[in-house]
Each structure stands twice: as C-alpha cells, then as structure tokens.
Amino acid sequence: MGNTKAKNNSNKPKQTGKTVTSVKKQNTVEYVIVNILCLFVFIAFAYIAIMSFVQTSVFDSANYGSEIILYQTDNIALNILFTSLFTVFIFKMKKHCDFFAKVNLKYMHIGLAAFVMIVGLVWIFSVTSVPAADSYNIYETASQAAKGNYSSFNNNSGFYNSDFYSGYSYYNFYPFQLGFVFISEIFYRIFGTDSTMPIQVFNVMCTAAAYIGIVNITRLLFKKRSVEFITILLLAGCFQPVLFCTFVYGNIIGMCFAIWASYFLIKYFQTNKYLLLIPCAVLLVISTLAKYNNLIYLVAFVVMLIIHTIKAKKWQSIAFALAICIAVVGTSNLVIMSYENRSGVKLSSGVSQAMYLDMGINDSYMAPGWYNGIALNDYKNAGLDAKAANAQAWTNIKSRMNYFGKNTNYMIDFFSKKIISQWNEPTYESIWVSKVKSHTNELNWIGNGMYDGSIGQFFELYFNFYMQILFIAFAAGIYFLFINRKTNIETVLLPLVILGAFGYHLLFEGKSQYVLTYIILMIPTASFAFECILNGKYTKIKEFVGKLKEIPDGKESEKA
C-alpha cells in the first residue's frame, strides 16, 4: 500500500498556476459553458463511434475518381472481437508500466518526428503526385506569379480548366484561395517552378511538427507521463495525415500552424503571460492564410478568450480576441488586395457562405451535402453579382428547409448520411488524393501496393479499426473529463474546435478530406481516456467476480 501511494504521488504535478489539476474552485460561467459544449461533443461522437461499428463509408471502386460514397455494412461481431482483443492487449501491456515509465519521452518525441518524416518522405517520393483541379489552379497561379506573370487573374485568358468557370478567372469565385497562393509563391521563388515537391516535403515537415504540437499540448493539459506516452503511440499509428502530404493544398500546413497556435493559447490560459498571445496570433494568421476554413479555430479561440475574460478578469483576453479577428480577416484581405494591385485586376467578392450553405444542404451524386456545383452555379447565373447570388441562395435555402420540415424522415436520413460519409470514411481520402492523379515518375512497389495491392487493403482495414477505437476513446475521454471535473477552457479548447468542424461541415459543403485535419485533435482526450481506463479500480466488478468464484462447483456439491 505504501509503495502504491508513493507512485501515485510521484505523478502529481507541481501546483504552478492554473492547470487542470488545480484545486482552485472553478468559475461558474466557465463550468456551465464548457460542460454544455462537452455534452454536444459527447453526443456527436458517441453517435459516430456507434455507427463506426455498424458500417463504414467507402468509395465506389467502379467510380473511384468520382468520389461516390457507398455505405458498407460491417461485421459487428468481428468489430467487437477486435475491440475486445485490443482491450485485453492494453491491459496486458499495463504490467510493463515500470518499463515504460523509464522511457525518455524526449527521445520518443524525436523518434515520433523522425518516424513521420521518414514515412512521409518515402510516400511522397514513391508516388510523385501531380496536382489537379483546385490545387492545379493554385500551382499555375503561384508558379506564374513567381515569374511575374499574372495572366490567370484575367477572364478568358485560357487558364487551367477555364471552360469549367465559363471563362471567368478562378479567383473571381474563390479569392480566399490567394492566401495559399501567396505561401506557394514564396516556395516557387525559392525552389523554382518546375515541381510541387518542395511543398509536399514541407507538408511532411508540418505533419511531424503538428504531431509534436499535439504531444506538447497533452503535456500542458494533463501533466502525466502516461497520458503523454499514450498520445505518442496513438500519433505514431495515425497515418492518414502523413499520406495526405501529397496534396498540394493548404490543409496540412494550416493544421500545423493552428495546432501550435492552440498550444500557445492554452499556455496563456495557464500562466496569464500575455506575450504568449503574440506567437498565437501570428501562427493563427498563417494557418488561415493556408486554409481559410481554419476560421473554425478563430471562433473557438474567441469563445474561450471571452470565458477567460469573465473568469480571470483579464481584459487583455477580450482585447486579444478582437485583435486576432482583425488580424486574421485583415491579412487575408491584404493578400487579395496585393494580388489585385500586382495583376491590375479587380476581383469579385466570390462565393459566399450562403451559397456554400445552399450547396451543403442539398443532395450530390457523391454523398449528401458533398460538392454538387450549386454554389458555383448560384454565382455564375447571377453574373458574379454577389447580392443577386445571395438572394437566390437564401431563396433556395428557405425552400429546402420547408422541404425538410415536411419530410422529417428524409431530413434525418440526409444529415445522418452526411455525417457518416465524412467522419466514418476512415481513409479521409488520404490515398484517394494521389491515386486519382497523374504521377511524374513510374510508381514503385510501395505506390502500386498501396493503390491496387495488399498494402492498400491492409491499411483500409487498419484505418477502419483505428478510427473505431479513436472515436470510442474520444467520447469516453469527454465523459472522464466531466466526471473528474477536469473540463475547463484548456481541456475543452480542442474538442470545441472539433465540434466547430462537425457543425460547420454538417451544414455547409462536406467531404471526408475536410475533416482529416481534425482527427488528431481527438488524441489528447482519447489518451486521457485510456489512462483513466487502465488505472481504474473497478471495485464493483472485482467484487462481482469474487462472488462468482465463491459459488460452489456442481461436481464439488455432489462429492459433498
């Protein structure tokens, strides 16, 4: 007993500032709001976890390039068997905790980063993917801008896929993409315009950095070696973002910078050192330039900063919330204005969120709420008149809502399929994004094996099982945070970002690749769940098992 207590006490962190283990009474406003948010997160991901045992969303192999989703029924008995075996395995591993406790976590950090870098570099050079569709539009613009050529900003200039946009410049529809054009142009000015491989290599570096960021966030939140150790193992097993590095787009870069922005914000909440807000703001600005959807992080940050202002009476928090809103939106607009000045072309305001909502609540040949061209057509049909296009979009939205109201069963089926098509497609298009494209070099055995061989079949099965476990652990982690009274603006920041992504892509345009960058945000909370499960006392279960053992055997009764 004495040794056990000593071990437990050694795990307790020093009480330095406000942390999840502090004994200071929690602010009522904080407690109420974060637990309401946790309730929504728990409901959403408990549903996804349950559905992941029942079915899996897969791409139709007969129409693979078209991204058509099929809903494949799972073998529930097999899923339960694998989960049971995994549970037995982790409890068996608990016996080796003394060994794992001696492992140097710094070396594990280095090992994780090196592992991600090696796997990522091997993969991108095995398939040498060439960009297409939107990513090629960006490549064309950025590589030409690096040479001082801005012709792709002009209408009817014969730019890539111009017929699809009726001759209008791509950036009249999507001016927000100029943030990633700006980042790409820097790369092409430094490394040349002949290849996108420098950006793919940077994607790999950003993935490794993002993983280390998640580990450091875990350390800030839970301050326990065991939780940090489990996080490293879970990250090492999460290959989807690594495989996604072939995609020459802002997803991975934006994910990395947003995660590190989250790290500095959490550290600010724990220490109240306002200088930490500077790197937080800079990183978030770069993140949203790379991927404008990372405004989801901005919203989560603002919500938590408002709560922090009320809780800690730190008015600098609300001032910072206002400042980052101005910085993020303002920087994006400055980049657009810069390209307008350099090209001499005044761009249209682009497709609005109302048009994206119109698209997101309608059917698609891919899956409910996936890309269907409605937003683009709203804008084109209005002659790029944003006011007229928005009016049409809102008319369509009201009509669609009325239809949902009169057909409740259809509405439930629509949104449930939309959720499952995104979150329960366990590859998250990480293989699809390179398989459907051309390649500069002939595929080697790794590329061929992943696309059409046993390697790919293995990874599809593995991803399905991995995500089942992660969804269960994440939902359980939210529950354990609540019952252990560890829900606060620090521990709930990443779950709030995930909830924001869930809600946004529930209503607006959806795709499984859009949620890929959020799956690793679940890992700290999932790791906390594993730690709680492994160190649970299970007193009632042990008492029940003990009573069963006391029941006399039938043969012994006969002998007596």
Features:
single chain; 560 residues; mainly alpha; two-stranded antiparallel sheet; 68% helix; disordered N terminus
Question: What can you tell me about this protein's structure?
Answer:
It is a multi-pass membrane protein. The chain crosses the membrane at residues 32-56, 76-93, 105-125, 168-188, 200-221, 241-266, 273-289, 295-311, 318-339, 461-482, 489-508, 514-534. The chain is 68% helix and 2% strand. It has 560 residues and is mainly α. The protein has one domain (19-543). It has a two-stranded antiparallel sheet with strand order 1-2. Helix 16 (353-360) packs parallel to helix 18 and helix 17 (374-381) packs across helix 18. It is globular. The two termini are 39 Å apart. Residues 1-23 have low confidence and may be disordered.
